[in-house]
């Protein structure tokens, strides 16, 4: 594709030359002959350091910002144009959108501290129910009716994302739901994605290692509504959630279509909620009449997620009645309050992805109604992530569970014992067992009839990151192994 058409209308100060580009990347290690290399200022290093390597590998053009251009001045061969953008990350994303071109016709995105993966998973199922070939993209990878491919990041880098969207469109996928992480939004990974609707779930503590303040974190999320949704797009929100007013203010300022859900919602108003085993019976008032829905999922938060997902599907064009009926067949996302097994004495074991204080509180509160005996939780906290959340997670566990076992999550480059100590500061009476498999086995061994165990923090993950190594590890497998051992004993 020609560079001038790739970069047209991006507001670059000098018109790009007519030059054929065979691909684009921001990682010098991925450069192939004929590629454009985007030299981006990173969180760890300045990408322009890698321009010589990119040129060696055959890069024919470089995209950067003013700072990169200043650093590269006088070092570039005349044959390689340097395109200078005000925001090189945004320019790269828009160029990637043009390079790959094809996207599923109807796409929605969801942001918020908790519930993104669940909402995206639900929207995909609702679209499928309505007969559309659909995908969801996020923390658990790309999911279609054909299966799941794990990606790594919640919101992939823009080049991978646009390549993936084109692949899905070519496969016949017409509908997609995307998770928009705050990192992804701030780093313009989603720019150029053509959305019809966006949703906000909630705001709690997360990623305080990356965003300087909670306001910065919120501002990153607001980009979905301020910058990414096109005029005429829809915003789905529960007005009862903290900071929903901030999302609504942006939506009003931009004249976007507002769709509200939940107890204070106008479009899908929740007027009744009652438990029935692991299901929940919902009464929902809508402008098209009242509906009684049996949601086959446990946990109050799944009601919020399901209504947000329904709002996204409706604002994307689906009929209200069909969408609400589809909620009756929803399956939870893997590792989100998932019942993984039962001990011979009837005690229940769940795996959940709560790795932040609010999520942990909600997950444990959701399990309390099913607990006749004691509620156990096995928790840890990830290394190289916000250290401030560790004692808060310990405290949430101590407040909501009867027995707390503190173990390792993904220690990454940190000393696991130091992470456990920080979690234990909030849960001083907890038992400490560093080895995650041993912690799960001990918890399962202690379960008596009527008890419930929640193994929290890793959800769908299939590895444990220790240093730079990913060791095979799955909470699901560890729970099943512990249950098998118990049954044989
Ligand atoms: C902190 C962070 O978000 N980093 C992301 C960011 O990297 P960066 O640009 O800051 O990287 P950097 O290491 O400083 O390098 C600067 C530039 O030099 C380039 N480089 C570097 C080395 C080299 O040899 N050659 C080279 O060209 C890099 O490709 C990059 O363009 O942009 C990259 C491309 O989009 C991302 O892959 C990378 O995600 C890292 C791997 C990561 O761990 N991110 C996590 C924290 C993350 O994004 N998480 C969110 C939220 C999860 C959730 O709550 O669900 C997610 O969306 O997954
Ligand atoms: N609406 C919600 N409100 C509060 N907690 C929730 C909500 N939805 C899910 N949770 C909790 O958060 C955990 C993660 O849920 P989910 O994966 O759907 O969210 P996420 O926003 O994608 O998280 P991440 O940013 O880690 O990918 C769940 O296992 C559950 O404990
Ligand atoms: N997307 C989140 C997931 C955290 C999951 C938890 N198991 C951990 O490793 O901290 C992050 O990268 O911060
Ligand atoms: Mg997620």
From TrEMBL:
SUPFAM superfamilies listed in its UniProt record: MurD-like peptide ligases, catalytic domain, MurD-like peptide ligases, peptide-binding domain, MurE/MurF N-terminal domain
Binding site for UDP-N-acetyl-alpha-D-muramoyl-L-alanyl-D-glutamate: 28, 154-155, 181, 187, 189
Pathway participation: Cell wall biogenesis; peptidoglycan biosynthesis
Keyword Protein biosynthesis: no
Matching InterPro entries: Mur-like_cat_sf, Mur_ligase_C, Mur_ligase_C_dom_sf, Mur_ligase_cen, Mur_ligase_N, MurE/MurF_N, UDP-N-AcMur-Glu-dNH2Pim_ligase
Ranges for domain Mur ligase central: 110-313
Motif stretch (Meso-diaminopimelate recognition motif): 409-412
Necessary cofactors: Mg(2+)
Transmembrane segments: none
A GO molecular-function annotation: ATP binding
Description of post-translational modifications: Carboxylation is probably crucial for Mg(2+) binding and, consequently, for the gamma-phosphate positioning of ATP.
A GO cellular component annotation in the UniProt record: cytoplasm
Modified residues (N6-carboxylysine): 221
Catalytic activity: UDP-N-acetyl-alpha-D-muramoyl-L-alanyl-D-glutamate + meso-2,6-diaminopimelate + ATP = UDP-N-acetyl-alpha-D-muramoyl-L-alanyl-gamma-D-glutamyl-meso-2,6-diaminopimelate + ADP + phosphate + H(+)
Keyword tags: ATP-binding, Cell cycle, Cell division, Cell shape, Cell wall biogenesis/degradation, Cytoplasm, Ligase, Magnesium, Nucleotide-binding, Peptidoglycan synthesis
Residues involved in meso-2,6-diaminopimelate binding: 385, 409-412, 457, 461
Principal location: cytoplasm
GO terms classed as biological process: cell division; cell wall organization; peptidoglycan biosynthetic process; regulation of cell shape
Family indicated by similarity: Belongs to the MurCDEF family. MurE subfamily.
Protein name in UniProt: UDP-N-acetylmuramoyl-L-alanyl-D-glutamate--2,6-diaminopimelate ligase
